[in-house]
Design brief:
With 69 residues, the chain is α+β, with helices and mostly antiparallel strands. 38% of the residues lie in helices and 14% in strands. It has a single domain, classed as Multidrug-efflux Transporter Regulator, Chain: A, Domain 2. It has a 3-stranded antiparallel beta sheet with strand order 1-3-2.
């Protein structure tokens, strides 16, 4: 029998939680997501946005202010 590595699903947070992590207004985070600066995932019938914590960390490591030099 061959074992495969189990990968847990990424931890997802709401717009409000993600905006607190990044210290920005929720509307700013939505704008960055719409511009493709940070990935978001739409879930449920209302198509609410969720952000993977891993993506937020990557965004911060890259400078994370949404402003291009």
């Amino acid at each position: 029998m061959q074992r495969t590595a189990r990968t847990d699903p990424p931890r997802m947070v709401t717009v409000g939680e993600a905006s607190q992590i990044l210290h920005v207004h929720p509307n700013t985070l939505r704008k960055w997501s719409d511009q493709g600066l940070i990935p978001s995932y739409r879930i449920g019938q209302r198509r609410d946005r969720r952000f993977a914590v891993e993506d937020l960390v990557t965004f911060l490591e890259r400078g994370g202010n949404g402003i291009e030099d």
